[in-house]
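Record type: ASSEMBLY
Status: queued
Input:
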Amino acid sequence: MADSKTIAKPALEVNNLSTWFYTDKGIVRAANDVSFTIKKGETLGLVGESGCGKSVTARSILGLIEPPGEIVTGEILLDNTNLLQAETKKLEKLRGRELAMVFQDPLSSLNPVLRIGLQMIETIQTHKKTSRREAERQALLQLDQIGLPDPERIMRSYSFELSGGMCQRVMLAMALLLEPKVLIVDEPTTALDTTVQTQILAELKRLQREMNMSLLMITHDMGVIAQMADTVAVMYAGSITEKAPVKKLFDNPAHPYTRALLSSIPRLGQNNLSPIEGQPPSLFNLPPGCPFLKRCPEVFSKCFDYMPSLGEISPGHFSACLLANNFELPGVSSQ
Amino acid sequence: MSLLEVKDLVKHYTRRKSLTNNLKLIVHAVDGVSFSIAKGEVLGLVGESGCGKSTLGRLITRLEETTGGEIYFREEEISSLRGSKLRLMRRNFQIMFQDTSSSLNPRWKISPIIEEPMLNFGMAESFRHNKCLELLDLVGLDKSDAEKYPHELSGGQRQRVNIARALALEPALLVCDEPVSSLDVSIRAQVLKLMQRLQQKLLLSYLFISHDLAAVSNIADRVAVMYLGQIVEILPAAGLEKAGTHPYTRVLIESVPVPDPHRAGALLRPAVRGEPPDPSNPPPGCRFHPRCPRAEERCRIEKPGLRKFESQHYAACHLL
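Status: finished
Output:
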């Protein structure tokens, strides 16, 4: 099982992606030199606080960046197709069929004046030549698959008649209708109760296995990451600061930010919160040096000199910290 | 002597069945809730959304009228207080909310926001000004922040302003309704820690309302678990993850995602299915029975009452 995973070729590959926003106040470097790969059937967890660039990364992959935003450099490979160079028509075909996304707020993702059923049938018929009856059958099946009781009633409902948890299940069902190879979920359960979150994550994991689907899971919840991800990438101020298989990351966090993040989450049965002081830096004109240096307990003089890039400290474990890399890092970022 | 005591508190709302159907439905938001909070104690209140925990907070602070039951503050019944008596009583208990931006007037600078409660009680300007600076310092903000507008501050800083305003009248009880839920992970711990420090320093009592059991268990002395308008279990926060016995408490404990990949998989076996039923039509018997993994015939018919297990541990379940 482990072997088949290691040789599996990546379903999605993001190389050196930089997405910047050119605003009146200056350039916001929302995502900087972001690289990762997701293997077939695996889950990559992208963790970070709001404004760290995780959603911008996801939107860049789907081609949803609009002016003043611009993808400055990088390539996004989905089955050897570079999405950044694909024509709009091809991209439209790929989105939905190969690549789908579920957003955090299900209520604003669904159209409030159309019944759920119509929205699902529309999704199918946009991408496949099927009869209305066949599309309806598929939609019902998918709703049942995701664990929604009474799919017929759901199809007749409007989004406001359903609870937040049910809407999010509908969104997942819609995203899975065309059996995408890669699914991006952006904080899919953050707005929900933990009891409902558990149910939805369990369904998601089950369906992922059945469909051998790759998952890019964006969240700030280290608990969800620990439970769902195979590999984790931690983002801070637009850059990936650490990347590792999930167990390595939790057992041996090799970046001070990851360590601080892990010790700042409240845990059941423990009463020793140690918060990270200060706030994330503004993304306008980041000063040179490590973006975490102002809050880092282990900061030293070299940290101010240049922005460290990711260095491999053990097989598959990357950290963008000088301390983890014996004070030497090969690359210096373009800044 | 307890600072706050609530006896058999009830709040029902009525609503129409739908736009076209005029049938009146009664929503049982809070249905027979009793508890007390001692001076200097933090009582955590957890439950899923819609369980009535926020309504309970609003009833205690008299932002909503009760349907039935009594609220005693320092042994004085306050649920029937009116007019100036209520106004004077209010300075003893304050409330703060989840949404850090909508609870601050965007057109006001921070200093008038913090000083407003004191102005309402006729305190002199110089006193207000000094107190405001003192409060800013207390919550870890800079003196210069007094001249800023809310939008110039971050979410964490705005929640600090909310705390400062709530403490301006030196209340004995603070009702905190999801005070850290909207904040980022790293900021959440900062604010939690601050609230903990203030509570100990000023010997405050908190009713700490949250859906985040892990956060609550960190700050609370005791935790009350609420389901569909009723308290199903109330117990000491320390050791809660083991001591919690009510099937619903267990469900809540087991659905907290554990930040430990070596224990992954636990999350993938949900302890409960579905969502809480409609509070306008609560199930008979034990309200949790339709979702309870251990429900028996008796649970469908007979209502369980809170029974004492240990000195501070009560639970409402037939099977315990």
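Annotation: The CA atoms of residues 56 and 72 of chain B lie 14 Å apart.
Annotation: The radius of gyration of chain B is 21 Å.
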